[in-house]
Amino acid sequence: MDRLRSWLHAPRPAVPEVRVTRREGLHLGILLALASTLAIVHSFLRYGIYEAKGYDLGIFDQVVRQYALFNAPLSSVKGVDFHILGDHFHPILALLAPFYWIWPDPRMLGIVMALALAAAAVPVYRFARRRTGHAVSLVAVAALMISWPFQAMVNWDFHEVTLGVPLMAWLVWALDGQRPWLATVLAAALLTVREDMGVTLIAVALVMALRRFWPQAALVAVLGVLGYWFATSVVIPHYSPTGDFGYWQFQALGPDMGSSILTILTRPWEAAAALVDHPLKAALWLLHLVPLLFLPLLSPLTLMALPILLSRLWNDRLNVWAPVYQYDAILAPLLLMAALEGAVRLSDLLARRRRPRPAGTGAGSHASPPMRRLPAVVASTALATGLVGTAFFPQVFPYHRTLTGDMTMTQHARDLDHAVSLIPDGVCVEAADNAVPHLTARTHVGLHGDIGDELATWMIVDTSVAELGGWDPLTPDQALDRAERLGFETVWERGDVVVLRHPDRAVSPTCTQYLQHR
């Protein structure tokens, strides 16, 4: 029991907070500048060659653009007059409005994303410096910045979870540095990132309790419960067209949260089996843990990752199990810091077995070579995984395409670019998913079939794809049949791209006023 208690209660930092010299700060800054530049280049290339999508870049561009205009966050990509807070709860996006006062362009979100990921690396460096030297801490930062979750985030174009990545990383740093009230504030800020962060706060509260931050743990737990209820039972139903929260997708556990919790408590073997019952699920576990040598399992910090990870694996949708989604990015710094803490715990355990422990020293206080060596091993292994993966596995490490010059303008992309140039400003247009981000700055653009039958005067159809994007997407054939039925006529066609126009329909004020302050 004493050993279990010793494992659960977090050690004090391995060394006091280390002062970072100007030279060390310069090294860190150069590394983050290089990594951020790579992320921005990859993001800009995706946009330039028409690989960026309306889902999600077009949606978030519209939302931030509306905030910048001091309008309600309506996204026509989601539907006519669709209030985005009826989809997910992420009011933190309003803080991005000033960036659009500088440059109102979808690519600005790529810059914001790179800055957010770099901001998450700073606490990882400082966390590592409490346990090891400057060089190893830089290796840990490099491993994070080139990790597959960060590459997947950049390759997704943008997502609200981006803004949760630095919040989570700084939260872990605050807990590790015995700053429970700062951690509480950061945990509360997570509630503005996404509605399901309320559940994550329960796990944060548990870790706080294990560290004996009792008042803060109680407060964070209450905030988590209230935050989840407020987002999913008040705000989202209020703005949702259907009047309810539409993202309960855990039918394998139960039709609602209550029944799902009951399943987990009364039939835990079924719930556990559902976490590994598909090759993609097993791959997701392994991709998170193998590069870190399974050392996160030795740290209670990993408990904070479970709500996000388990919600992915218990989800009914097969595609969210794949290691290509943005959701993993918020876990990357957390699990890396947990691995570093786990490395120190393991080293400390080995040191205690080798020799008697000096009286009065805290866990992790040993400065023996084994303790310093194991964090270096885990950081180096994580970096090597990222480098090898980027070199040989582009499906999971998409920076491969940027670094090898594979992201080039195809004839199909040129056709889409010309099609976009034919669309006048201020009109309503239905477009294929990959054309949408290029139209959000000057039109009221939606996906095919998602803005009704009366608004659009122009259409762009991409016949090379299986579906044209959206929650319930049309196929190209369905879109062309619908266009013919509504009276649209083809005005330009080349390759797989078709541009159509309605000859008689006037442009609605809904279209012309969408990009104005209302």
Automatic annotation (TrEMBL):
<dbReference type="InterPro" id="IPR018650">
    <property type="entry name" value="STSV1_Orf64"/>
</dbReference>
<feature type="transmembrane region" description="Helical">
    <location>
        <begin position="374"/>
        <end position="393"/>
    </location>
</feature>
<protein>
    <submittedName>
        <fullName>Putative membrane protein</fullName>
    </submittedName>
</protein>
<keyword id="KW-0812">Transmembrane</keyword>
<feature type="transmembrane region" description="Helical">
    <location>
        <begin position="217"/>
        <end position="239"/>
    </location>
</feature>
<feature type="transmembrane region" description="Helical">
    <location>
        <begin position="109"/>
        <end position="128"/>
    </location>
</feature>
<feature type="transmembrane region" description="Helical">
    <location>
        <begin position="135"/>
        <end position="154"/>
    </location>
</feature>
<keyword id="KW-0472">Membrane</keyword>
<feature type="transmembrane region" description="Helical">
    <location>
        <begin position="285"/>
        <end position="310"/>
    </location>
</feature>
<feature type="transmembrane region" description="Helical">
    <location>
        <begin position="26"/>
        <end position="45"/>
    </location>
</feature>
<dbReference type="Pfam" id="PF09852">
    <property type="entry name" value="DUF2079"/>
</dbReference>
<keyword id="KW-1133">Transmembrane helix</keyword>
